[in-house]
Design a protein that fits this description.
InterPro entries: Endo/Exo/Phosphatase_dom_1, RuvA_2-like. The chain contains 13 helices and 4 strands. By secondary structure, it is mainly α. Among the domains are: 63 residues; 61 residues, Orthogonal Bundle (DNA polymerase, domain 1), CATH 1.10.150.320; 60 residues, Orthogonal Bundle (DNA polymerase, domain 1), CATH 1.10.150.
Amino acid sequence: MAYKSHFKFSNSQRNGIFLLAILIIVFQCIYAFVDFSSESVQADKIALERFRQQVDSLKRAEIDKNTPKVYPFNPNFITDFKGYTLGMTTEEIDRLLQFREKEQWINSVQQFQEVTRVSDSLLDVISPLFQFPDWVTDPKPKMNWSDNSKNPSGDSPKTYDQKIDLNKASAQELQKVNGIGERLSDNIVKYRNKFNGGFISEIQLQDIYGLTPEVIERITNDFAVKTPRHVEKIDLNTATRDQLVTIQHIDYEIAHYIIEQRTLRDGFKSFDELLKVKKFPIRKFEIIKLYLTLN
């Protein structure tokens, strides 16, 4: 009986085995000589980290956008809700509101603490946001002249009868005031002539470009509005928006806020409450009052 070999292969089988051997050798060479370092992986990690930082930055920006902003404000106008958001207790807010009901004004950080009795720690946080009117933070010195005193020019203060009517004064008469030259006297006359009837009050000199408080004080020592322009005063509690915008320094936005505040208050009780109106031009308060009445 002849022995049959089990290792006898056909030509196709031998070719397959040979191809497999070649593939094994090729893969071993690749593994041995090709660098499979983590550079590409590291590059992907860097790109991923940058992407993560961008996402975090966008998240922070969104949080900042949705976080309520606290802007500078006048502490005299703190409401119940405003006080609560600032961290004040109900008692502290009530003390402030009771103080304001007496038509009294807080004019310093120290006075705010005396009235409300807030803690030092809370005061340190909120006081940098306090914004008082210019006449509080930068008061202009006023001269009080007695009957026997002299003004800076060396002349006795003039009586009302001795003063020249500002609505009839010529540019040459105005130039006699120290600090008034040809240009400023021309500005005063041009401003006066803008209105049929001239000035309503000397306070309107504040609206003339180039006049400093010191020069205005010198003008009012020699001049007075003796023939004021007649104006039909507008009732603050019934005025429409279109009526309010006819007043100097009040535009449609401010008129809207005035009516909004009037509605919330169920009517204004005093002109001083206008100072609580959003964006109200506080420095022009006295001029605006010339056109208003309160019934």
